[in-house]
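Appendix B, Record 12. Input sequence as logged:
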Amino acid sequence: MSNDLFSLALLFTVILISGCNSTQHTQTITPLNARPEISLSREREDRILALEPDRVTEREVRELLAPGPAPRIVNIHGGIYPVYLVMESFSEFLLGMGYPETSVRHPGDGSYSFSCYENSEKIAGTIAWYYENEGLRPLIVGHSQGGIQAVKVLHELAGNFATRIPVWNPMTGKKEQRYEIREPLTGKLVTVVGLQVSYATAVGAGGLTRILPNQWKMMKKLRKVPDSVVEFTGFYMGMDLLGGDLMGFGSGNLFKPNGHARVRNVRLPTGYNHFNVPATKHLLESRQIIEWIYNYTPSEEPRLEVEFDSDSSHILWAADVWHSIKKHWVLELQRVINAKRDRNHANG
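Logged structural output:
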């Protein structure tokens, strides 16, 4: 066996044996703090309804949105130990940008992310629990094998693997003896299969990692985005052996809707490192960078043409994902407020 083949085999061995260790380094938080009530004053509701989701400013985030509820962010990290740390870095970036901590941390064990080896049915069932108990449709962010798992969860919700999915309670870590939730906006019972998340994204999902046994069922499904998500963004980059098809070059890396989902594909600059793209906490060290991220306009092939006073690595990925997160934060709140007002109007 050549040195290259031996190294590759060793790498896959590390991937397979290390996933089980990836969620043990966590903090515990008070579970009750993870269930904010969607109760806003009429004035705050009016201000939220007046927001432009594609142009949410830092002041609007910190003064108007951050004190209230936010969609649950379901992060899914990759498989090589200790890759969970880069998702922790991204989570801390979100907190620094103004996102509520209780909407990022797992309410049961305080962790920042699921492992890519976590059962996709369990993640889907947990998303259903979040929606029922928190009233806002969750957002999913996946990296590397976690990106593949993110798309797998979407296929779970779409019913492409099973016709029934149980609700999973994140407080107990156990599934409940039911396959339905009470839809927060209508009060009607609806099945977990058929639920929709607001936004999902995957970076570095594909390449050699999808030949691993836990990803075989995604061979023909990875690039097909079902209607269980409103908007999806797929990120890819050249010279990505592990996460890119054909090294991250060409149309084989493009995600496509399998129905009506809005799908974007973003090509990051060649040279972005597959292993640590979500490592973004360092971006908070520069006021100049924070302002640039808040003013970022999404592009399918973003380029950085500004020199900053601090380390700006991974800024293009962070800026694009943050733009989508704050956009769907606003859209979800507007959706809830409008539904509430429609009910009140119908009731006289």
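The longest strand covers residues 229-237.
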